[in-house]
Write a structure and sequence with these properties.
This protein has two helices and four strands. With 67 residues, the chain is of the alpha+beta class.
Length: 67
Amino acid sequence: MAIRVAWDRNPVSVHGTKSDLELVLNHLREKHGFRKHSLIMPDRENDEEAVFFLYSACDPRWITEVL
């Protein structure tokens, strides 16, 4: 799984394939109750397939748990 998180953006963006991002979102929802995020959408600014945005603080370790 290869995802990229842009922690320097506001809101934070998470980039990768749609299937990988679905796994990340499911993990955040089920294990940590994290629900403040956008839908997965096509990434039109970068070379990645898809992107979603985080709208509240998220511990970086939560995302690395999936990797």
